[in-house]
Design goal:
The complex is a heterodimer. By secondary structure, chain A is of the alpha+beta class. Chain A has nine helices and seven strands, in the order H-H-H-H-H-H-E-H-E-E-E-E-E-E-H-H. Chain A starts with 6 loop residues before the first helix and ends in a 37-residue tail after the last helix. In chain B, helix 5 packs across helix 6. Classes of the chains: A alpha+beta, B alpha+beta.
Amino acid sequence: MVMRLPNYLQSIDDSPSASIGTSHGLHAQRMARRLGWLSVALGTLEILAPGTLARVVGIRGSWPTRVVTRALGLREIASGVGILTTPRPTSWLTSRMAGDVMDLGLLFTALASPSARRLRLLAAAAAVVGVAVLDARSAQRLSAPNGGARAVRARRSITVNRPVEDVYRFWRDLSNLPTFMEKIESVRVTGHRRSHWIATGPLGLPFEWEADVVEERENEVIAWRSLPGSEIDTAGAVWFRPAPGGRGTVVTVELEYTPPGRELTAQLVKLIGQAPEQQLRQDLQRFKQLMETGQIIIAPDLPPIPARRFGRDRRRRRAGAVVPMLAGGA
Amino acid sequence: MKANRWMGKRSVEVHDTPDPEILNPGDAIVKITSTAICGSDLHLYNGYVPTMRPGDVLGHEFMGEIVEVGREVKNLRVGDRVVVPFPIACGACAMCSKALFSLCENSNPNAWIAEKLWGYSPAGIFGYSHMLGGFPGGQAEYARVPFADVGPLKIPAGIADEKVLFLSDILPTGYMGAEMCNIQPGDVIAVWGAGPVGQFAVKSAYLRAPSASSSSNGSPTACAWPGRPVAPRRSTTSRWTSTRRCGR
């Protein structure tokens, strides 16, 4: 038997060029991690050997200096741990920058002291400035969506209990996509490879673009990408592979779009909480329903009743409430 | 129509509610003739189930008469009497094709919420919070039944509602307890917790054993008494009922 990669990795391998992200974000994240470790190391040093450190940067290791240095060490470790434990630690990096400014202030105050060794102090200040620049750059890169690249990306898989051929055929007619993709208003197929898309963007604004199918292997993969110069830069790809145990087809979809208006819109999209991964997950569930049952099930929302008594019993709420697992005659 | 609606923690009221409509071609509308209150409705009542909204119609044990069918419904006609099982099942996914209907992958349109909470989602369930689909329940005059070809059991005329209503949920729950016991002829079966589920477990224990004529020892002896399980554990299949094989 041949060892198989997990589906997810396999599909990265045969990722068509249409949906390859940049290494930009990855780089910024690596840099952030290095800065995090630097913080932890420096902080540990400041706490364990405050006197020695003070002498290295050119100040006398008197007891007030040692206390202040230890406090600075605690701050360093806090931001270091914050950076290392947060996936996109922009705010921690910003706090590191504030710390850098504080350190510079202290170093320059120390310059005024008669016992200070100027050359060492200036060298230390230069090092702090250098690190501050790195902090600022990493924070800036990470604050863009997708860790630097402006593109918003999402990737999900679902298993559909239908043969690969059926699933592929349905998807290859791109005009079927709006039936299950909530934010795609319409796709008009205008040529063998070309199609015209209308989608609802953030705040309900419509977007239109032309796209080409850029890669196509029957029953394996379909990839499409907006034409250069479109209002929105977007690409998508879908992979099909037989599910093990005769369970149908594993469908993996990757979508990527760069919102128009550059940074500003990208930040706005982030702010109003559009979660592309979540959207794709629900779109794929509808796709599965449609392929397996021929319908997309609708759950109606009842007209709400004024919640006059809602929360009345809040005071009586007991601690340790459990969520029952629907056992015992759900 | 009138419907029993959850208004907040420990508050349930009967209100006028819009009549249900056919929303999918596979739907049917049932005019409810009998309905029951389940032990698990207490979880909703006591506010333990997230994603309930004030005004949600309760009830997942109901039966009645078909008054309207969607254009794709083939197995049911207007006038049929049906018992509606509490899990909604599509009949087409991998789970349904193995008759694991309560794990249906298509009947819960809000599966993602249940996945966030439990890591997976069960089937959609009538009147049991929005994370299980937000389907209005059967403690009402009418209910919409999605995938009507799959779940509902047709009931012949001449059988009273009380004889079949509990097929919707609580009898199969007790039966499952007995089934998991692997009952053999001559076993003595004790059921802790003689509530409705426990009593159905007792009845089912008799059903599960070979008939008296085919075994020398006769049918098993089963009994139930009130009280808590000897070793109360939340992780057993049933919170209130624990069916144990006690030996021969």
